[in-house]
């Protein structure tokens, strides 16, 4: 079948897709977007987390046939021409990346948390990231990164308000 | 994984009729259990009928003062619904105690009630399992069973239902609405799932091919102060090793009405009717709560590896009832 969908703001069409294959497979193998990772492929680890119509889901559990005419944002879609998103930059600076396999999913999930909650508490961060498993870091540096990103996003918003612009909302 | 067909449908009648034409089709909700079982080879359907696109995504108020939750309502939307949070808080708490954000964003209400046990023998196709392969045996009784059933099990199966949501729903008198062939039927949740007996492969009392269309909760004033408490082996993102949904109505120092249900103790969400009967009319006191829990637990048949659950469920019951009533310890 032909899949027509919006990925990272661009209209994408892919032909000869088996409707039963996963969205994760479509993104990685058919659209050349390998950021989302295939770790457990059973919805347990969160490494494949993407936004589907603005809501984070495990893309390994979504069938290709389910995404026609829907909007997907992957980890590749979080940065813009100005550079990395503050969440991505904070992960680098805090050493929140070791093997890197869980990182794209954690970045998307942290991005979603900070879009909804400006100053999350530590328990809120832990609960929000519970569905993203990391076997390397012990999570401490990841928590550091989310706190740093939260501070910077809040500072950006304040600066934007003072400058009279609408600010970075996502 | 076996190759399978995928089909979207736009109405309930077509969904049920389509499933009936296939020897081995399944309804697909959020896919948070079925799809992973397919990847493990436990489920091998030839066709998936996507029921998330059916017009079953609303939560509406009913004439009796209750609510009707569409079967395709996502867990996240259910937990965030203002009416649910205000009138049936245990339901929202139970949903948020389960899975992770990414999974709750996909998982559906109907799918939650149909989810399969996480017994490690059921999910491992190299092992015998009477539920997955009838007659092959059950290694759990003499094997790993620390999170399996203490109530209502049989020599053939000691699996537990893993649902948090179902525990809150069964405590609050939920009714499951199903479509069977050409007719619609309403089944109290207390009667919807089967205990294993000698047929652990049969999990519900509805016809094969029946489709859940919704779950209703009655107008129930006691539910507004209901609460869900879950015990698990880490702080989040783990199945319960014991859980409870409860609500208590007190007048003049006596318990005038109550609802109690337990999770992770049986193949069904366990409505503790003996405990409820024991507690009604009794003084609000720790001794009353303990006696009620003990009355229910006289039926318990723990094994060596899960005997801890008897004390666990007793203690968490006493604790939650004390919290709900303000009884001093």
Structural overview:
The complex is a heterodimer of chains A (about 170) and B (about 325). Chain A has about 170 residues and is an alpha+beta fold. Chain A folds into two domains: about 5-75, Roll (Ubiquitin-like (UB roll)), CATH 3.10.20.30; about 85-160, [2Fe-2S]-binding domain (DNA polymerase, domain 1), CATH 1.10.150. In chain A, about 35% of the residues lie in helices and about 10% in strands. In chain A, strands 2-1-5-3-4 form a five-stranded mixed sheet, covered by helices on one side. In chain A, strand 3 (about 50) and strand 4 (about 55-60) form a beta hairpin. Chain B has about 325 residues and is α+β, with helices and mostly antiparallel strands. Among the domains of chain B are: about 1-55, Uridine Diphospho-n-acetylenolpyruvylglucosamine Reductase, domain 2 (2-Layer Sandwich), CATH 3.30.43.10; about 230-325, Enolase-like, domain 1 (2-Layer Sandwich), CATH 3.30.390. Chain B has a five-stranded antiparallel sheet with strand order 4-5-8-6-7. In chain B, strands 9-10-11-12 form a four-stranded antiparallel sheet, sandwiched between helices. Classes of the chains: A alpha+beta (about 170), B alpha+beta (about 325). The interface between A and B is medium-sized, with 27 and 27 residues.
User: Per CATH, what is the topology of one domain in chain B?
Assistant: Enolase-like, domain 1
Strand content of chain B: 15-25%
**What is the mean predicted local confidence, pLDDT of chain A?**
95
What share of residues are in beta strands of chain A?
5-15%
Order of helices and strands of chain A: EEHEEEHHHH
**Helix-strand sequence of chain B:** EHEHEEEHHHHHHEEEEEEEHHH
First CA to last CA of chain B: what distance?
Answer: 54 Å
Helical proportion of chain B, percent range: 25-40%
Most extensive interface, chain pair and sizes: A-B, 27 and 27 residues
Structural class, from secondary structure content of chain B?
alpha+beta
The main pleated sheet of chain A reads as: 5 strands, mixed
Shape of chain A: globular
């Amino acid at each position: 079948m032909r899949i027509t969908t919006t990925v990272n703001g661009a209209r994408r069409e892919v032909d000869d897709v088996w409707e039963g294959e996963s969205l994760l497979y479509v993104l990685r193998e058919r659209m050349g977007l390998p950021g989302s990772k295939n770790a457990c492929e059973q919805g347990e680890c969160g490494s494949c987390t993407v936004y589907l119509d603005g809501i984070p889901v495990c893309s390994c559990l979504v069938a290709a046939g389910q995404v026609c005419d829907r909007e997907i944002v992957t980890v590749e879609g979080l940065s813009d021409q100005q550079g990395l998103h503050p969440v991505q930059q904070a992960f680098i600076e805090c050493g929140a990346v070791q093997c890197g396999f869980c990182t794209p999913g954690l970045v998307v999930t942290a991005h979603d948390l900070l879009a909804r909650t400006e100053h999350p508490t530590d328990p809120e961060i832990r609960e929000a990231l519970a569905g993203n498993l990391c076997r390397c870091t012990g999570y401490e540096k990841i928590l550091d990164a989310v706190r740093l990103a939260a501070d910077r996003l809040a500072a950006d918003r304040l600066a934007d308000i003072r400058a009279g612009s609408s600010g970075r909302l996502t | 994984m076996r190759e399978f067909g995928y089909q979207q449908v736009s109405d309930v009648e077509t969904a049920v009729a389509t499933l009936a034409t296939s020897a081995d089709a399944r309804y697909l909700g959020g896919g948070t259990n079925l799809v992973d079982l397919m990847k493990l080879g436990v489920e091998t359907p030839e066709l998936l009928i996507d029921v998330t696109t059916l017009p079953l995504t609303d939560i509406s108020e009913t004439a009796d003062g209750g609510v009707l939750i569409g079967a395709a309502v996502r867990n996240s939307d259910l937990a965030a619904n203002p009416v649910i949070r205000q009138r049936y808080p245990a339901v929202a708490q139970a949903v948020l105690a389960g899975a992770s954000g990414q999974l709750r964003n996909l998982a559906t209400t109907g799918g939650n009630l149909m989810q399969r046990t996480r017994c490690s023998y059921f999910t491992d196709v190299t092992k015998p399992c009477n539920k997955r392969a009838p007659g092959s045996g059950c290694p759990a009784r003499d094997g790993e069973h620390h999170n399996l059933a203490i109530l209502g099990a049989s020599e053939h199966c000691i699996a537990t239902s893993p649902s948090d949501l179902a525990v809150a729903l069964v405590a609050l008198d939920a009714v499951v609405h199903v479509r069977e062939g050409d007719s619609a039927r309403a089944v109290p949740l207390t009667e919807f799932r089967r205990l294993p007996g000698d047929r652990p492969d049969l999990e519900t009392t509805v016809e094969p091919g029946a489709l859940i269309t919704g779950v209703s909760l009655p107008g129930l004033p006691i539910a507004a102060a209901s609460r869900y408490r879950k015990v698990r082996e880490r702080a989040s993102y783990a199945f319960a090793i014991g859980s409870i949904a409860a609500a208590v109505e007190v007048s003049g120092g006596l318990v005038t009405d109550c609802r109690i249900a337990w999770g992770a103790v049986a193949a069904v969400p366990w409505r503790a009717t003996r405990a409820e009967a024991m507690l009604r009319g009794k003084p609000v006191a720790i001794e009353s709560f303990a006696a009620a829990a003990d009355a229910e637990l006289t039926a318990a048949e723990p094994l060596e590896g899960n005997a801890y659950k008897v004390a666990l469920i007793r203690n968490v019951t006493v604790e939650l009832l004390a919290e709900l009533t303000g009884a001093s310890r």
